[in-house]
Specification:
InterPro entries: DUF707, Nucleotide-diphossugar_trans. Pfam families: DUF707. This is DUF707 domain-containing protein. The chain is of the alpha/beta class. It has one domain: Alpha-Beta Complex (Spore Coat Polysaccharide Biosynthesis Protein SpsA, Chain A). The protein contains 10 helices and 11 strands. Strands 1, 2, 3, 4, 5, 6, 7, 8, 9, 10 and 11 form an 11-stranded mixed β-sheet that branches. The protein is globular and about 55 Å long. The C terminus is likely disordered.
């Protein structure tokens, strides 16, 4: 580790990991690289800045064990970005990712998805005309978390295996969550693999409690979890704060105008129309804090 960089990129990598390309190109990095491997292959993490972590678990339970064993990293770095290994990203965009998080005081963020990506949720696709959109949903794929918030969220990760459901709760389990989480449109990444196709999902299929059950249990263990993925404000390309209505209209226009470019055109078109409707019907929405309910054996 250099000791001079403020940010850490943690990637859960295998033999086909794309993280090697993130290091290429001119100019310095403002981030260190930590590689976590589920197989013992010295080539995978040879270009990392910190010692390789080898853990046979899934992404998020491995992250929990790693941070639990190395809590000093949450004091050493301002943000940690937890990346999947199937993302096309540039060094410059990763640098800018952290800079934007700092500029806007975000506790939680993710880059938007390039139009060529495999995706689950149209709301995450890059929106033309906005630098970022404040959102009550941030996916687990490439999340950057400010480390003071990460420390407080760590106990909620203790029993997580798949990570499903965390993206539904972590934008609202902070005090005063409004305008603390965002989808960043100034930069984008390409997700190269269809959802739920990694080898770990074959293991989930054989288990009594899989990702869907884990997500349901996590959501039910809190009050006030949003039932819709919503953007509720943004920053435009000129750096000006814009209202929820203007953000949704911009998002709707972007989805409808570009729906032909996406892998699921009808879904993106419908999602764009829904943005126009919510610009009126949900004009005053902002997220409120969620709190743990009384724990049961099924709670996470």
């Amino acid at each position: 580790m250099t000791g001079t960089r403020d940010y850490l990129v943690f990637v859960r990598g295998g033999r086909t990991s794309l993280h090697h390309d993130w290091l290429k190109g001119p100019g310095p990095r403002n981030w260190d690289l930590q590689v976590s491997q589920w197989i013992d292959d010295p080539e995978i993490g040879a270009d990392g800045d910190l010692p390789v972590s080898i853990d046979a678990g899934t992404k998020w339970d491995s992250i929990y064990r790693y941070l639990d064993a190395n809590p000093d990293l949450m004091d050493r770095y301002r943000y940690i970005a937890f990346m999947d290994d199937d993302l096309i990203f540039t060094k410059q965009d990763l640098n800018r990712y952290f800079e934007i998080c700092e500029e806007h005081g975000l506790l939680l963020a993710q880059p938007s998805l390039h139009a060529d990506s495999f995706f689950c949720y149209p709301i995450l696709l890059q929106c033309a005309g906005t630098k970022l959109r404040f959102s009550n949903f941030v996916e687990c794929m490439a999340t950057a978390i400010r480390t003071d918030y990460l420390k407080s969220f760590m106990p909620r990760m203790a029993k997580v295996k798949s990570g499903w459901g965390m993206d539904r709760i972590w934008t609202v389990t902070m005090p005063e969550p409004a305008f603390k989480s965002a989808i960043i449109d100034e930069i984008s990444m390409v997700h190269t693999r269809p959802h739920a196709t990694g080898g770990i999902y074959k293991d989930f299929a054989r288990e009594a409690v899989g990702p869907h059950a884990e997500m349901e249990a996590m959501i039910k263990s809190y009050d006030n979890i949003p039932d819709k993925m919503m953007v509720y404000g943004g920053i435009d390309d000129a750096g000006r704060r814009i209202t929820a209505a203007r953000t949704r209209i911009a998002n709707g226009i972007s989805l409808v105008a570009n729906c032909w470019r996406y892998r699921d055109t009808p879904r993106c078109f419908r999602s764009g129309l829904g943005m126009f409707v919510r610009a009126v019907t949900e004009a005053n929405y902002t997220p409120q804090s969620a709190h743990p309910l009384q724990r049961t054996e099924a709670s996470l």
